[in-house]
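sanity check this:
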Amino acid sequence: MSTLLNGLKQHSIVVADTGDFAAMRKYQPRDATTNPSLLLKAAMMPEYADLVGRVVADAKQTTSTPATALSIAMDRLAVAFGVEILKIVPNRVSTEVDARLSFDTRASVEKALTLISLYEEAGIPRERVLIKLAATWEGIEAARHLRQHGIRSNLTLLFSFAQAVACAEAGVQLISPFVGRILDWYKKSTGVAGYAPSEDPGVQSVTRIYSYYKKFGYGTEVMGASFRNRDEILELAGCDLLTISPALLEELASNEGAVPRRLDPVASATVPDERVIMDERTFRWMHNEDAMATEKLSEGIRLFAADSVKLEKSLAARL
């Protein structure tokens, strides 16, 4: 009998949710995704000391202004990890725009163009890079503008149906609904210790988004993310992509069993949702009405921003 990981790969594209090169080589995902928290963790690991050292040395040579040198070092570090990742995974890597720009469309676009420029200087075509942006209204608009430059985006920190619809209307390449963080909120707010996989609020959120996209023919890819247990993952077998941590990849690879497909585009035609006409006012009201999504989006931006600050302090000490 096949492992759960191999069975899952028959229905969904598996993505590594890590900055650890060794884990990618072991589990052979097609794509990989990083974020400020993962980059901070990886940058502190001894095995990446040479890579970080090269980035710092390059930044020192490019400018004499400390603030500018730090900004360059942060961008180059993100891209350096991405370039190394693309030597392992055959398809795409996601690289995140600073979370502190989540409410600034113009600055997000400019940062994305800088990152893409650095990738292209390293010989990586933009088709192999997804720019990660927080799924605020401003982030979604930034993704819309980036499409005009042939740059594709991954909209992250996605918790509400409003965010998902707005992303699809903007022609976003991929969204990352955070399954586990949705579960965390409901467990805390309701006092319920756990949910059956099919009743997991995070699983139900992704299932609804996937079905809506397929029913109305949107091309935006759905990538379930931020899982807390393997049952959440298996319940979403058939989702376009699933980004999974090394610990859960190991659990799936170490256990055998059948993996039935749970999400199917044909079955999605029967979902009851009507098509939503999305504009900024509708988005802000719908998202505001979802207490979980409003809270978790703000919290996620704060946490990613805090890890970016920690990484900056580490690099500043070397500069």
Notes: Residues 4-318 form a domain with the TIM Barrel fold (CATH 3.20.20.70). The chain has one domain: 4-318.
